Amino acid sequence: MNGLIVFNSANDVVYQNLNGPLTEKICNIAITQGLLPAGSVTTPGAALDSNVLLQIFSPIISSQRIMHCQFDNAYASFQCENGFNLVFGELLGFSFLKIGQIEIEQQMRQLGVAMTLTRYCYGANLFGAQAGVMQHELLTQCLNCYESQLCQEEQSYLLEAIPKLLINPELKRTVHITLDATLEQLRQTGGQQRTHALLLISHKLVALNSTRQALPLAPADLLFLAILARALHSQKSQRAVAVFLQGVSHDVNSGCVPTIVHISRLHGHQVLLQLIEYGHMPLTSSIYDTFFVLQKIVAVQQQGDADALKPAYESLESFVSQTLTALKRHLKQKHEEMDNCVKKFSARWENLRKMYVEFFKSYEREMLVRIESNLPAFVEELKQLFTLSLASCDSASNHQLDQLADSAAVVEAKLLEFAEFLAVKAARNISIDAYLEDFPGLVHFMYVNRSSGQMLAPDLRQNNPQLVPKSKLWNMIEFTRGYLKKGQTTVMWKDRTFHYSYFLWFEDLSGGILKCTLDLQQHFLSTGFGANGNGQKQPAEPGALPMDYYSELAELCFPKLSPGKVRVYELFCIHLGLVTATCAVEHARRLVATISDVVGEETF
């Protein structure tokens, strides 16, 4: 059984994605409680009546909301009989409920990914009526692809890093020149200054090219785009969708980047993704940040924390001011609907601002009640503003879609003579056999650049016997994550068959080792680390999708360095059990040097 239900602030069901067994179980409970007539049957793939879900789950969700908003101590999960678990999350005022029969930790990660995919599909206006059916279907397709296929079967999605395809320098240069020409064509004919082009072959990244004006992609963006390409795999060869990418976390405009993604399926298992950033980034970014601050204010007000309310209000005032400034700067010629929306938004904000000023003079409860009653209307105007601001620049992107299909055909033609070679290379990217002579006892490794979101590892054998059982590989990663959350960056252990080792380290841009002077174990023990994005207080989960864990870790360890100047690496090694710890460490050092020589620093 597996499923996800999302409730809005009024406890209404706004989204459900339940598999067959869970749908049947809920239907049986509803019959037992008299919510459905006896003999009711569920249609495979059909949604359950939202009122039934509301009746069954409303008490739990209401209790969860009270614990979160009034006591700042939300539930993380419920463990029930027969391995049946409920996991809770909160995002922008929406309550996410993940239901399943898998381990709590795994279910929490799936919930974090589900919330991240929701942000990618909807942007700031989660489950907005303006988004329509397309975004709803897109979220469902991405969720199903990730949960039923990717996270269970592929090590790259377990690690949350995209595999890199190794090719020779000459061919690599040819691919980059081809993609650069595509971006230049988009600039010359369509005036598109902020674009990216990604080439994937058999789900491995061959090349990523971006224009200078484009916001650099975050590791999570690469993973989402790969999931998106897989989720839409069975559909037509050309497909364009609108999504909201994140961008690198240290950029001022990151968080919500409206983007058209055009997916083309080419010869030889090649997939070309062309990305056009089409929104006014300072505007969408400030609106996105305003949504988050508003939710913080709502929580603080419900908790009655007067000391925390003023700084939260000051943050809101700052972001609203940035939004209004961005509106004046980037939308100088507004159509009538947009102009009216801006006027309403400005008027509601001025009314709200005066209430807050009055409240901070006296701290009277009556004024706070008036503020709370006016906030929902302000939020609705903000949602409308977000939608209309995107619509005002959407037309500048739509007429480019035909050109994107033509560009994909040009790329396919230029790479046609290499297509078969690249397809074979992708199927045999890295073989552990090539490393056995120089690294006796080594049976598997995974080398991850957390700053770029890319990884290198021998492929898991689908049809041949695997040297390391997949279950041991999955358990190894979960085991190391548990210790990393405690501040341990080097872990070694063994079982009856294998010796396992894990290393995390930091480098500067020249490849020099950076040593962290902070005692991570003591720091994590005393303060915890990271916000997991679920509205919970448990330690953040290492990874790229639920949150950019490694970027925040680098910022914690090196607060005086610019985030873009610190690289984070991980190496997982599995040796035969007879290998000693000293040998494993020596192998790890030589393995990194060997891979660096093969890959070349400019590509990894």
Tell me about this structure.
The chain is built from 17 helices and 17 strands. The chain is globular and about 75 Å long. The chain has 604 residues and is of the alpha+beta class. The protein starts with a strand and ends in a 5-residue tail after the last helix. 49% of the residues lie in helices and 18% in strands. The model has no long low-confidence stretch (mean pLDDT 89). Strands 6, 12, 13, 14, 15, 16 and 17 form a 7-stranded mixed beta sheet that branches. A 5-stranded antiparallel beta sheet has the order 2-1-5-4-3, sandwiched between helices. A 5-stranded antiparallel beta sheet has the order 8-7-11-10-9, sandwiched between helices. Helix 4 crosses helix 7, helix 8 packs antiparallel against helix 9 and helix 8 packs antiparallel against helix 11.
**Helical proportion, percent range:** 40-55%
Characterize the main sheet.
7 strands, mixed
Low-pLDDT regions: none
Helix and strand composition category = alpha+beta
Over the alpha carbons, how many angstroms does the gyration radius reach?
25 Å
SS element count, helices: 17
* End-to-end distance: 39 Å
- Mean pLDDT score, rounded? 89
Into which percentage range does the β-strand content fall?
15-25%
**How many strands in all?**
17
Inertia-based shape? globular
Give a short summary of the structure.
With about 600 residues, the protein is of the alpha+beta class. It contains 17 helices and 17 strands. Helix 6 packs antiparallel against helix 12, helix 8 packs antiparallel against helix 9 and helix 8 runs antiparallel to helix 11.
